[in-house]
TrEMBL record:
InterPro entries: Diverse_substrate_MTase, Methyltransf_11, SAM-dependent_MTases_sf. This is Methyltransferase type 11 domain-containing protein. The lineage of its organism: Bacteria, Bacillati, Actinomycetota, Actinomycetes, Streptosporangiales. Belongs to the methyltransferase superfamily. Gene3D superfamilies: Vaccinia Virus protein VP39. Residues 31-121 form the Methyltransferase type domain. One of its GO terms (biological process) is methylation. One of its GO terms (molecular function) is S-adenosylmethionine-dependent methyltransferase activity. Keywords: Methyltransferase, Transferase. It holds the Pfam family Methyltransf_11.
Length: 200
């Protein structure tokens, strides 16, 4: 379904502003992990001079490269691509971490971030029943309202369902791999992690 008023909306795009607010004012280089067809990467480019997006899904990268922007789109595996360590001022990832081993992905993001840089993640985790049922039902109601008002854009990237890691497990992983990070659970079936890498 096409979004209304010419603007795309879905549960992931809804939380893009949270990622963008985390971008440091002095950021020069940004990495979008799991960039898909580049929606977030292009938004990052409005604030950061040099943006790289990486994704394993070739059709999405083809679509991303069709846009008239100067974002560098890389077809490859974020976990093994030869990026320089500590080379990005901001690393963003939306709905990607559940496609890989979460601990490995978090550690890789941590290592690619320069001291003082910021990591901003929006992700999906697995609900546990019956504890999460009231929250999930509320999220479905609110999501239905947003769809009715804004339409819904279906991204071209592959999906993984259910996510392999639960919300409590994700919170614990973030605390272990990214000490001092801020974990928050959101209504529209998402969580976020923000973390500033300590200075050397």
């Amino acid at each position: 379904m096409t979004a209304k008023n010419g603007k795309r909306w879905n549960h992931n795009i809804h939380y893009h502003p949270r990622v963008l607010r985390a971008v440091p004012d002095d950021a020069r280089r940004a990495l979008d992990v799991g960039c898909g067809e580049g929606t977030l990467a292009r938004e990052l480019r409005q604030a950061v001079p040099h943006v790289t997006g990486i994704d394993l899904h070739a059709p999405s990268i083809v679509q991303a490269r069709e846009h008239p922007d100067d974002v560098e789109y890389v077809l490859g595996d974020f976990l093994t691509h030869p990026f320089e360590p500590a080379s990005f001022d901001v690393i963003a990832s939306v709905a990607t971490l559940h496609h890989m081993d979460a601990a490995t992905g978090l550690a890789r993001m941590r290592d690619l971030l320069r001291p003082g840089g910021v990591l901003a993640i929006v992700g999906l985790a697995r609900s546990t029943m019956p504890d999460d049922l009231p929250r999930d039902l509320a999220g479905i109601v609110v999501g239905t309202f947003h769809r009715a008002m804004k339409g819904h854009w279906d991204h071209p990237s592959p999906t993984v369902w259910p996510p392999p890691v639960t919300y409590p497990q994700m919170r614990a992983l973030a605390a272990e791999v990214l000490p001092g990070s801020r974990y928050r659970r959101h209504l529209l079936l998402r969580y976020s992690i923000t973390w500033r890498k300590p200075q050397d």
